[in-house]
Structures are given as C-alpha cells and as structure tokens.
Amino acid sequence: MAEVTLLGFWPSPFVYRVIWALKLKGVEYEYVEEDVVYNKSDRLLEYNPVHKKVPVLVHAGKPIAESAVILEYIEETWPHNPLLPKDPHQRALARFWTKFGEDKSIALCTFFITEGEEQVKATKEAQENLRILEEHGLGNKKFFGGDEIGMADFEFGWLNLWLPVMEQIAGVKVMEAESFPRLHAWIQRFKELPTIKQNLPDHSAMLTYFKDRRAFFLASAKS
Amino acid sequence: MSGETVELLGHWASPSALRVKWTLKLKEIEYEYVEEDLANKSPLHLEYNPVHKKIPVLVHGGKPLAESLVILEYLDETWKRNPILPDDPYERAQARFWARFVDDKCAPSILSAFTKKGEEKEKAGKEARENLKILESGLGKKQFFGGESIGFVDIAAGWIGLWARMVEEIADVNIIDTETMPLLDAWFRRVLQVPILKECLPPQDRLLEHNKGFYKNLTGGSS
Predict the structure, then answer these.
(1) CATH architecture of B6-78
(2) Start and end of every GST N-terminal domain (chain A) (predicted)?
C-alpha cells in the first residue's frame, strides 16, 4: 500500500482542496476513486465510519477525515510550501475564513437546488455572503493567504470552476464580475497557478454530472 | 507579543465563551472580561466582529478574533504553557476532528431537541443521543479526550455536560443516556469536576432560569 492514499470522488471540491495541498507540497500519493453516490466501499466505511464521506487521507495506514482537518495535518506533516502564514493572528484569520466557507457552503449553493421564488431568495443570500467574503475576507490582498496562496484560497477554490458550472446549469448568475471585481480578479490569478491549472476536473464531465444532480434535487424537492 | 493586553468579549450564558474562558484560565493568561448584552450590541463588539456579530471575540493587542475553536488554536499557538493540542500531527487531527463533530453534529441536534415539539422533538432527541454515542467512540476508555489531562476536545465538548442536562429538564427529552453511553456519562461528570473548569461555570440556577426563559420564547411554553 502506498505511504499516502487519498480516497476521493472526482467532482468533489472538498477532495480537490486536498489534491491542491498535496500537489503544492509535492507529496506523492495514490488516488483512489470512491463511488460515494451509489456504492461506498468497505474501505471507506472502515476509514471514515463517522461521516462515511470523502476526502479521506490515509498516511502510513492511519486515516484522517474532514478536508479542513486533513489540510492542517498536511501542513504539519509536510511544512514546506506552507498553507498558513507564520504570524499567529494571520493564521487565525486564515482558519476563520476557512470556517466561514464551510459554514456558508449551503447558503452559497442553495441557488443550485432551487427554482422560482426560492431560487431568487437563495441567490440573494449567496450574494450577501460573497459580499462579506470580498470585503472582509479577501479585501485588497492578492490571495486570501496574502502574497501566496494558502488554506483559505483552497477553501474558496470551488468558485473558480464549480460555481460557473452550477450557474450555467441553474440558469442564474450569482457572482457577476462587475459586482464582485476583487473576487473575480482573485479567481483569474488563482486558476493560472500551475498547481490549480493542472489539477481540475474535466469541464464537460462536470456539466453532465451537475446537470444530473440539479435534476435529482429538484425532483426530490417535489416528492 | 504575549505581553500585550487580552480582552474577551463574551456572554455569561454562552458555552462558546466558556470554552475560551477555560483555555485562558488553563494557560494562566491574564485578561479582561467584557460582558456583552446580546440584545444591545455595543459599537465595540460590532467593530470587532463585523462578519458574524457574535461572541466570543478575543482581542489581543487590539487585534480581534472570532469563532471559539479558532480562538482556542490561537491561544495554544501564542501561549505555550499547558498546551491543549497534542504534539503528534495525527493526534492533533483526531482532536480537531472531534471538536468539529461537537459543533457540526452534537450542538445542532441538542438545540433541535430543545426547540422542537412532539414527534419532531423525540426524533431530534434520538439524533442527539446517536451523535453523543459516536462522540463516545472518540473518548474510548481514556480519562479525558486529552488522555491523562484535559485537552482541546474536553474544552470543546465539556459544556454539553451542563447544558444537555438543562435541556433534558426543561424540554423533557433524554439527551445523555447513561445506559448506552456510560463512558461519556462518566466523562461528563469527571470533566466538570476539574477545578479550573468547575470554577468558571456560570451559576447553575441562574443558567436554568435563563434557559427556561429562552424555551418559553422559542416554543411558547410547555412541551
């Protein structure tokens, strides 16, 4: 068995955060695709009995679950090319914004699984949170992490590809460039980084997958 | 840096603020406590936590931080005395995992059991008990989550020992099942007897009245 294994699911932005962290630090790992929707493996259930979700990082046989916890572990185990700044206050801010991203993920994505009035409301709520993120989280920095990317940039990395895919399928523009110029500028910088550019899921496969997911959610909401 | 003033903006009945108080006490950090009237937030508070407008807020050398678990990590990194996180990265990952589990799963289900009625309340109570049973698996046969002495998870989860019993009394729903979770039940009693933690607890009769008041407002009266 490889020293480092990542159990993942190809369309998951949580999994990609871990991939980006491992790639940034040049950590060799074996990637194992899990069919989390229809057929979770015994291995996944054994390694993450509490949540039964991916990503799970397995290092020397020991499993770690929850993407933010995994990122902290990666940072401590392979400290080069750091994901967190040295200054404790700045580190705390990075953690704060990472948590903000986690706490607001439902609010940011509900527009995708709703329609009509509900979707209008959900879009507004998403925009309010993006407003807070742009003003207080990113501000005038180059990246969330400052001059270099870090943990918080990975937390919001899904805005660069997952969000546009979801917007296209749901037929609604949530993050207009004119309304969120700093976030848009950040996205342009983020996706040009080799670590990110070379590690993104296939765009057309994403469109197919998410189209399917929206149909599923809308149908479940009706039943 | 650790010589600069430390202020904690909190509320006497808040479990999140209690976590920070416990950590400040454990690490023998001198601080000034500022009680926030949550119905009437001070300009200071709104300035320091514009994002969430919630307590606790830790202000160190004029720089504010919010989110109790983020604050705990900051305190541990800045004041090395009596560390609350272990040294080993894997053990640290486990501690972070369980602390989040308390916030993401245990707390919401306990709150649900407190605020819902009838069948929904019973369902929420069941979920709360299941989550606590899972939390027990993180404790195992240890004295504390931190091992021989209290650590990150003890501080993150200890409040449940007091608040869950209040929910049980006020809302008439079982949260801590002494039969199905004997190890966790024993830990609840043990952890709240630790002198440093015990001396910071809010006065219990006052807390009971406070939560009874909440209950009346949220549910309109009896269960």
Answers:
(1) 3-Layer(aba) Sandwich (3.40)
(2) 2-82
